[in-house]
Amino acid sequence: MKKLFAEFFGTFWLVFGGCGSAIFAAGFPELGIGFAGVALAFGLTVLTMAYAVGHISGGHFNPAVSFGLWAGGKFEGKDLVGYIIAQLIGAFLAAGALYVIASGKAGFIIDSAQAGAFAANGFGALSPNGYSMTAALIAEFLLTLFFLLIILRSTNERAPKGFAPIAIGLGLTLIHLISIPITNTSVNPARSTSQAFFAGGDYPAQLWLFWIAPIAGALVAGFIHKALFDKE
Fold it and tell me: Is 0.90 surpassed by the pTM of this model?
């Protein structure tokens, strides 16, 4: 149960901090943090929670990470369902908290036809810069693949001790710097699902891509790591 609670709190913080920065601070008049600030916020959520509870659960906070670590032989398959449920609950409760806070401002509405509405992920008309489904699929696949390679290699017993959360957090920051204009950046099915639920419109119908592409990328990374690096 400690592991599941750690995954719950870690995923809650990722969604609340990362998506919250996009909802409340990215476009704030004159002093908004912009894409770079949102990217850094997502990286900081993972970095801080990896140090806080990573030693308890492994610090996944993301169904794709759980699948990738399983494929790489670093996580037991019997724990997959429990981890994913805990991650989804954390993501949904964080999104709910964001919605309640956002509703405290007069005139607040979610325009489900707007790209990036409520920090949701999308492609085509729902992509921040109009990128196609194919572009979104390739981006999410490749970015998650490299994210898992960063995780697997930085947590290897031969890597410098104590620095993995920094590498992982900066890796996620870089991923967001690359792909916010493409899909609003997912690489995390739990984060995508919670925001799509509240954004509504066509967002839930596009969720399939933000489950399939990140998980596929994570699985390929896990298999690559197991085949090429695990026996060094």
Answer: yes
52 contacts 84 by C-beta, under 8 angstroms: no
Cβ 44 vs Cβ 125: under 8 Å: no
Give Cβ neighbours of residue 231 (< 8 Å, ≥ 6 apart).
none
CB neighbour list of residue 109: distance below 8 Å, 6 or more residues apart: none
Give residue-wise pLDDT tens across range 90-126. Answer: 999 999 999 999 999 998 999 999 999 999 999 999 9
Task: Compute the distance between CA of residue 177 and CA of residue 228 in angstroms, rounded to an integer.
Answer: 28
Which parts of 58-126 fold into alpha helices (H)? Answer: 63-71, 80-102
Q: Please give the Cα distance from 129 to 51 (Å, whole number).
A: 34
For residue 162, give the nearest of 46, 16, 1, 50 by alpha carbon.
50
Measured distance CA(145)–CA(195) in Å, rounded: 22
